[in-house]
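We emphasize that the prediction below concerns an isolated chain of 272 residues; any contacts that depend on oligomerization or on bound cofactors are therefore not represented. The input was used exactly as deposited, without trimming of termini.
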Amino acid sequence: MAPTVLITGASEGIGKASALLFASKGYDLILTARHPDNLESVAQEVQSLGRPAPLTIPCDVTDSSQVDHLVEKALDHYGYIDILINNAGIFAEGPVEKFSLSDWHQIIDTNLWGYIHTVHALLPHFLQRKSGTIVNVSSIGGKVPTPYLVPYCTSKFGVTGLTESMHAELKPKGVHVCGIYPNVIKSRFLERAIFRGQDEQDTQSRREQLDNVLKNPAVEKPEDVANAIWDAVKNQKSEVFVGSANLSQAIYRLFPSLLQWVSRQALKNQDN
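Result of the prediction step, given as a token string:
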């Protein structure tokens, strides 16, 4: 029997790249995201690799009942799940006081609660089997506190805490938990990102600024993160930093105040 992997946020970017990579490694796939049309497009690409059609299940991970249905349907179909890759997420940038409570809830509900919901639904299966792997795609923003990314960093620091504490508790029980920490990735995340500013011009400027960063050929690609996920799974690593995130982590450890000053200057835009 082929091993199985459940991937959230699988319709594009890191999730799609991970789906194609794990399919090429012989895995059967359960793919989920909010938009069924995009999921079906990924499913067709998987089949073009000569693999069986993935099980695609539309799901909003912020809704625990939908996640419970997702896991139940996946287990009914395959009988078992070997790996969970938590990847669905949303980016946010701007002065902290400009984010509404609705913004905060959307960011944390997606980036943190979405991961908690899938873990809560699937962990009993892993514990019963005394095996399984949970991969949480976090961010360098979950290790390095960054100005003007406060709600985003809050959610990702939460993911880091979730990951590290679960790793400590579940390793003796046969469940491996690992965190993946990329920097900015060249993908379509800007389409659903939340930007806030002092005014409309500042908000638009922030979006354009990040868009220009993503045009830099040195920016890592979704495939780089997918390879990091595979490395973590194959070699049972507790965490993997992707590309330039290694440098960010190293600089923060040596010169935390300097890195925060540089980040403030780069991201403050029209903020005083």
